UniProtKB/TrEMBL annotation:
<feature type="active site" description="Proton donor/acceptor">
    <location>
        <position position="136"/>
    </location>
</feature>
<feature type="binding site">
    <location>
        <position position="206"/>
    </location>
    <ligand>
        <name>pyruvate</name>
    </ligand>
</feature>
<comment type="similarity">
    <text>Belongs to the DapA family.</text>
</comment>
<keyword id="KW-0456">Lyase</keyword>
<dbReference type="InterPro" id="IPR013785">
    <property type="entry name" value="Aldolase_TIM"/>
</dbReference>
<feature type="active site" description="Schiff-base intermediate with substrate">
    <location>
        <position position="164"/>
    </location>
</feature>
<dbReference type="Pfam" id="PF00701">
    <property type="entry name" value="DHDPS"/>
</dbReference>
<protein>
    <submittedName>
        <fullName>Dihydrodipicolinate synthase</fullName>
    </submittedName>
</protein>
<dbReference type="InterPro" id="IPR002220">
    <property type="entry name" value="DapA-like"/>
</dbReference>
<dbReference type="GO" id="GO:0008840">
    <property type="term" value="F:4-hydroxy-tetrahydrodipicolinate synthase activity"/>
</dbReference>
């Protein structure tokens, strides 16, 4: 399925049973609500999807189950976060075999590769697959930045098509547009900078709190796209305390707790993560419950 790099694409959480197996029924419950809200794609196995704890067979199961479940309604992408080029190429081939529409790719894990090594890594994977690739550029969390000069080289590969822009520098959206126009699509990847990035020209939003609040997230995107900025801003201002749960080391636990309270998820995480407890849990619960209590009435954003 071809990917249009636009709209809201949830970086979905991975659901686990009480015995630490994949919880496919709970996972599908959440995916259904995402589709009903009008999301434009699904991203599996990212940071929020607990990628570093997933076994290879679990990633493949998630991909196959999601592709079958969405049944062509939206594209399905799987994240690649590997330590070696060999491993990344193998992961890309498995994703292609399993029916994924595209890849989200982080730079090499653990080893802090130099610029040329990063370019070679992405280039080798791009040459090995027909799948379109979105490079996840998050130097804050992963300590490697893919610079404009590096993208200049990488864009020689036709299937490197988009960037998940998570540098936290809002002006980078403009820099990318100046240098590459529409050749490199921009999916903002920081929930607390989402509306700002969209207004500066980002094409879409790989979102986190969408996992618990899909309608509000898609409404913000559709409203700003339709030029209804004040309506989008009103929802975004309500949303911001919740969105801040995404820019936190315990974003997985935070967002899974929010999913529980909106009725579309479970709180199970995979060790070494633990569910929130004590004062930290109470603080996050307060934000979630206040958000739910003041949840805005959404306009008919699907028909703007």
């Amino acid at each position: 399925m071809a990917i249009e790099w636009k709209g809201v694409m949830p970086a979905v959480t991975t659901k686990f049973t009480d015995t630490d197996e994949l919880d496919i029924p709970a996972f599908k419950t959440n995916i259904k609500v995402q589709l009903d809200a009008g999301v434009h794609g699904i991203v599996l196995g990212g940071t929020l999807g607990e990628a570093s704890t997933l076994e290879d067979h679990e990633k493949r199961t998630l991909t196959k189950e999601t592709v079958a479940y969405v049944d062509g309604k939206v594209p399905v992408m799987i994240n690649i976060a590997e330590q070696s080029t060999k491993g990344a190429i193998a992961a890309a081939q498995k994703a292609e075999d399993d029916g994924a529409s595209g890849l989200m790719m982080l730079p090499p894990m653990r080893y802090k590769a130099g610029d040329q090594e990063v370019i070679q890594y992405f280039s080798d994977v791009a040459s090995s697959t027909k799948l379109p690739i979105m490079i996840y550029n998050n130097p804050v969390d992963y300590k490697i930045e893919v610079s404009l000069a590096m993208f200049e080289v990488l864009l020689k590969h036709d299937n490197i098509q988009a960037v998940k822009e998570s540098t936290r520098d809002i002006s980078n959206v403009t820099r990318i547009k100046i240098n590459f126009g529409d050749r490199l699509k921009i999916m903002t990847g920081v929930d607390t900078l989402a509306l700002e990035s969209l207004l500066m020209g980002a094409d879409g939003w790989v979102a986190g709190l969408v996992c618990a609040f899909p309608g509000e997230t898609v409404a913000i995107y559709e409203l700003q796209k339709a030029g209804k900025i004040q309506e989008a801003l009103a929802i975004y201002r309500w949303f911001l305390p919740l969105l801040e749960l995404d820019i936190n080391p315990k974003l997985v636990q935070n967002i899974k707790l929010a999913e529980v309270h909106t009725g579309i998820g479970t709180e199970n995480v995979r060790a070494p993560r633990l569910p929130l407890f004590g004062e930290e849990r109470e603080h996050v619960l307060k934000i979630i419950t206040e958000g739910i209590a003041t949840r805005p009435t959404l306009p008919n954003y699907k028909n703007l």
